What we know:
The chain is of the alpha/beta class and 231 residues long. The chain is built from nine helices and eight strands. Strands 1, 2, 3, 4, 5, 6, 7 and 8 form an eight-stranded mixed β-sheet that branches. Helix 2 (41-57) links the parallel strand 2 (25-29) and strand 3 (62-68). Helix 2 (41-57) runs parallel beside helix 3.
Amino acid sequence: MNTIPNNDNYIQVLHDLNIDIQNREIYLHSSDAEEESGVDFKVATKLEKNIRYLNLISKDPILIHMHLPGGVWEDCLGMFDTIKYSESEITILAYAKVESASSVLLQAAHKRILMPNTHVLIHYGSLSIDNEHKAAMSSLEWSAKETDKMIDIFTEKCLHSPLAEEKKWKKMMIKKHILSQLANKSDWILNADEAIQYGFADGILGSSEYPNIDSIKKHKRKKNATRIRNT
């Protein structure tokens, strides 16, 4: 069960620093209180600090509550790497919308759970081009490589999905399908069930497997215990 520390600073730390140290939970959302700025360097650096801090305390699982739209691609990748290579296993519980950069960020987690009314939106990012010709060409080349990186991330996640197994898709077939979806739609939007079918999420809160938030943490502890016994 979660515990609420008997500490006057608990609420202040939770809201100012977005971390519940006692329960190993992090709250991931826009840094601007007035508007939804999405992924930026403020959001990224705070998350990186919080994950590192919890990893230094112990290697117990971490739960991230993510309510975050898209944002800056480079900052998203910094967060992606921090989550992916965390020594503690990380579960992301996504609220409301997982869009653009945050749809990629979700894929870094060891377990990806969606609130029942959460949607996942995947699309190509926007690019600002410099007026100088060589700089503009360099930006285009970089953007193409980063786009390939995004497609590869989703392709890998779809490889062992229920849909891929049903259709007997190989890796190149999956990549072709994802590219076709993005070519036909400016925004490829999936509901929670569809995201699971594609392998872009692992479960839905309120299901029999994850009836509530506490069950996510218990499920993770049970899996860890099984891994230790089988070692």
